[in-house]
Specification:
alpha/beta, Rossmann fold, Arc Repressor Mutant, subunit A, 5-stranded parallel beta sheet, 4-stranded antiparallel beta sheet, globular
Length: 232
């Protein structure tokens, strides 16, 4: 049973999401403001959050920043087409994905399944212990810990999966579409920009000088790769 928090100040949207996510494996919780969402997260074990950006009392971005202080639970933002800048900001500060209103029921269900699958796999005791490293980057898959030159760094589940993919194939170039297909486990349908934002956020955590990356490189017109560059 997965606990999913639905947070939107428009009650008809929450009701619609309840219909789209009518699954015996889901237990759905409702919140109608960022403050209500934080209160529920403090009292319940939540496995995924769908959260609107524009809300009274505490907006979705501010609520997400609070959540990220203590939790890496997957967060899918609910956005309007006119909120492009907010989508990018949300991905920058910790959102794992976003869905644009009006919703496609099939897309909502698929995105939720994808995020839950990754999140639960990260916490699964069945994952085989392994260590991946490149230069000063070390990823301990058993404990889900990532360090840079010995210092722990905090990654969202999406950032972790992207890093793991690139560490498993050092020097190999992955296109945004291929990264989306492997990490989101879904067909990329114009969502490549989401990958670029997560890559940028990951670089900010891995690189001392993101403008001159030592590890996470862009291969223009092709994609991204992870390789050990020369030390400064």
């Amino acid at each position: 049973m997965y606990n999913i928090l639905l947070c939107d100040d428009e009650r008809d949207i929450v009701s619609a999401l309840r219909i789209y996510l009518n699954d015996s494996n889901y237990r759905l919780f409702e919140a109608f403001s960022g403050k209500e969402a934080l209160s529920l997260l403090a009292s319940e074990e939540i496995h995924l959050v769908l959260m609107d950006i524009m809300m009274p009392e505490l907006d979705g971005i501010s609520a997400m920043l609070k959540i990220r202080e203590t939790s890496n639970v997957p967060i899918i933002l609910l956005t309007a087409k006119s909120e492009d800048s907010d989508k990018i900001l949300g991905l920058h500060v910790g959102a794992d994905d976003y869905i644009t209103k009006p919703f496609n029921p099939v897309e909502v269900a698929a995105r939720v399944r994808s995020q839950l699958r990754r999140y639960m796999q990260l916490g699964s005791a069945e994952v085989k212990p392994s260590t991946l490293s490149l230069g000063g980057i070390t990823l301990e898959d058993k404990s889900k810990e990532v360090t840079l030159d010995g210092d722990a760094i905090s990654l969202t589940p999406t950032e972790y999966d992207i890093l793991k993919l690139l560490l498993e194939h050092p020097g190999q170039v992955f296109s945004p579409k291929e990264i989306y297909r492997r990490v989101w486990q879904d067909t990329p349908l114009g969502n490549e920009g989401t990958v670029a934002v997560h890559i940028r956020h990951l670089r900010e955590k891995l690189e001392y000088n993101p403008a001159e990356p030592r590890y996470l490189k862009v291969v223009w017109g092709q994609g991204y790769k992870l390789e050990k560059g020369a030390r400064e």
